[in-house]
Structures are given as structure tokens and as C-alpha cells.
Specification:
This protein is an alpha+beta fold. It contains ten helices and 15 strands.
């Protein structure tokens, strides 16, 4: 099962929508959940793979990168796919509540102490904008960001003197229940958000938030070949939790397009305007590249939109898998006006080619003769 794609693991098509993916995940998770397969290490491994697949395919950015680069592409997002900071974990948690706590049976998970539950994710994300050349060649960039630090006075609870009272809505259970027919369903308490407790009075230091915001600067080394939507993990620079544990900072990149070079993966395209006489005679001239000038030798009779490929002159792969190509696309330019002298010269040039200059005549003559036969 480890060798299967994420779509094969969940048994869905690649064009499946989010609802289909979610439904497929529910089915697979129920089938391989450890509570239903006690002591079955194979089922436990399949359950982990289902989680990994769903966390990726339920996140638009991760799914887009996976579809394009596979699991290797996800490594550029800051680590293994089993440890990403998307909202998928909350979604998975709510699913387990529905599947194993809401069908009349109690949850097999032990309730955490409300004082230990974090009010925010420790991992965090910031966006960074790069110029085309910064992304292509790599650079060092300083980034200033704000992170959350657990309030010391209330121990991150948001309550004055860290005093919490049982939630009145759920009676301290963290869950509220509702019945539909003979079925009983549970959901996270909307008042205490599943904590089972609420502040008696708000902490004055953090205004009941449970955290304060602090600023920090860090210089990161952007690797050559980075592209839009790639992510870089900066270890230990995320939010700080109640017990002093600090998460990671993820930097998501957006690359500004260049005026002349057009990027497609690791390949780079450049449009070369060529006058029609240059294309006819097959001239040679120098064109710009990412590393300097290159000589472009046109074919005699080069066509409009024709491509000339320069191997290995593109962008370095961010994972170290070689370089892409530079593709020069010819855009033919024709004169908008002709002088009498130019017309005469072109006429003489055309006549010098003889029958070769009038290929249309044989084709059109045959078509005309055929058409005449239709009206006899």
C-alpha cells in the first residue's frame, strides 16, 4: 500500500471533488481504525497512510503540488507529509468524533486536561514575495513576523489567575449530544470549543486570549529554483505553547513574473522577434539567457512560433534534480508598409524562384477544374 498513490490509497479518481475525497476517507478510516483492529499492525499502517493521503488531498495547495511533483514535491513544503500544519488535523479529529464517539459508544481517547490544550497551532505560516531572479538563483532574505507566546500570568488559559470553571453548556464534557431517531450524535461544544471549561474572569494581561504577540526577525536562505506555492520550514520559529514548546515557521513563496522570461516548471521560455527576411535566410544572432548570451542559429525558412531548445539552460531543480531547458520561440515580424522600390525588389526575388514561388497554382487549378465539373 506504501507504493500506491494517494488517490489509490483512498480509492478515488484524480479529478474527485472534496466531498468525494472526504467520503472515501471516512470509509477507509473506519475500516482500518486501530480501535476496530486491535493488535493488527498492518491495519495500523494502512490507517496512517489513509490519514497522510487525506491530509494532502484535502488541502488545495498541497494537492496541487502533489499532482505536479508527487511526494517528492511535498518535501519542499517543510518536511514529511505526515507533519504539515494545515487545518486537516481539526477535520480529522471531528471525523473521528463522528465515527467512534457519535454512534452510541464513547470515545476511546482520554480527555486531555483543559489546562494542557493549546488554544492555537504551534506551527505557523508567513508569505514571502520574491523577484524572478531571486527565485532562480537563490538568495538570503530577512523576514519579520509576529508569533504567539503563551501568556505567563494565566498560563495560556485566558483566565484570571488561571482559574477555570466547568462549561455550563456541556457540563464540562467538551461535547454536546443530540438524538436523531435511535442514533445519538456528538459534536464539539460551541461554547468552550471542546475544552470542557471556561474562564471565570478574563486575564487582564492578554485580554482573555491566552497569548501575547511578539515580533521577531530571521534571515532565511532561499534555495535556487524555488517556485510559487513552494514552502520552506524554519525549525523552532513558530508559536510558543503553554509548556514552552515552540512550533515551526513555514514560509510560502510567491514569485513575481519576469518581463522577458516565462517560467514553466524548470523550463524557461523567451520570445524572439525575427524579421521575415531573417527567417528566410536562416540568420544567426545572440539571445539572452539566465547565464549570459547564447547563439541562435535559425533554420532557412524558419516558421512562426517555431521553438529552438537549449538543453540545461533553464532553472535548477529545487530538489537538486538537474536543470530545465531554455526554449526560444520565434515570433515572425512582417512589414506593415512597402515602398514601390521594396515591392519591385520583392517581385524580382519571387520571380527568381521560378515555379517554386507559385505552389498555389497547381493546387488551385486542379480545384477549379473539379468545381467546374459539378455544374455540367
Amino acid at each position: 500500500m506504501e507504493d500506491l498513490s494517494y488517490y489509490e490509497i483512498l480509492n478515488v479518481a484524480q479529478n474527485a471533488d472534496k466531498a468525494t475525497i472526504k467520503a472515501a476517507y471516512r470509509t477507509m478510516a473506519k475500516k482500518y481504525h486501530p480501535d476496530k483492529n486491535a493488535g493488527d499492525s498492518e491495519a495500523e499502517q494502512k490507517f496512517k497512510l489513509c490519514n497522510e493521503a487525506y491530509q494532502c488531498l484535502s488541502d488545495d495547495k498541497q494537492k496541487s503540488i502533489y499532482d505536479r511533483y508527487g511526494k517528492e514535491g511535498l518535501k519542499g513544503m517543510g518536511g514529511s507529509s505526515s507533519r504539515r500544519s494545515s487545518g486537516g488535523f481539526d477535520d480529522l479529529g471531528s471525523m473521528f468524533e463522528e465515527m467512534f464517539n457519535g454512534f452510541g459508544g464513547g470515545s476511546s481517547r482520554r480527555r486531555q486536561n483543559p489546562a494542557d490544550i493549546e488554544k492555537y497551532q504551534l506551527d505557523m505560516n508567513v508569505d514571502m514575495y520574491l523577484s524572478f531572479n531571486e527565485a532562480v538563483f537563490g538568495c538570503d532574505k530577512e523576514i519579520e513576523f509576529s508569533y504567539k507566546n503563551s501568556c505567563k500570568k494565566c498560563k495560556g488559559t485566558g483566565a484570571k489567575d488561571a482559574k477555570l470553571s466547568p462549561c455550563k453548556q456541556c457540563n464540562g464534557q467538551g461535547q454536546v449530544y443530540m438524538k436523531q431517531g435511535f442514533m445519538t450524535f456528538s459534536q464539539t461544544c460551541p461554547t468552550c470549543l471542546g475544552l470542557g471549561s471556561a474562564p471565570t474572569d478574563s486575564c487582564e494581561s492578554c485580554k482573555g486570549e491566552g497569548y501575547t504577540k511578539e515580533k521577531e526577525k530571521v534571515t532565511i536562505k532561499v534555495p535556487a529554483g524555488i517556485d510559487s506555492q513552494n514552502r520552506l520550514r524554519v525549525s523552532g520559529k513558530g508559536n510558543i505553547g503553554k509548556k514552552g514548546t515552540r512550533g515551526d515557521l513555514y514560509v510560502t513563496f510567491t514569485v513575481t513574473p519576469d518581463k522577458h522570461f516565462i517560467r514553466n516548471g524548470n523550463d524557461v521560455y523567451i520570445e524572439i522577434p525575427v524579421f521575415f527576411t531573417q527567417a528566410i535566410t536562416g540568420e544567426s544572432f545572440h539571445i539572452p539567457s539566465l547565464t549570459g548570451e547564447l547563439e541562435l542559429k535559425l533554420d532557412i525558412g524558419t516558421k512562426d512560433k517555431q521553438h529552438f531548445t537549449f538543453k540545461g539552460e533553464g532553472i535548477a531543480d529545487v530538489h537538486g534534480n538537474g536543470k530545465g531547458n531554455l526554449i526560444a520561440q520565434v515570433n515572425l515580424i512582417y512589414p506593415k508598409k512597402l515602398t514601390s522600390e521594396q515591392k519591385e525588389l520583392l517581385k524580382k526575388l519571387q520571380e527568381s524562384f521560378g515555379v517554386e514561388s507559385t505552389p498555389h497554382e497547381s493546387v488551385l487549378d486542379a480545384a477549379i477544374e473539379k468545381m467546374k465539373g459539378w455544374f455540367k
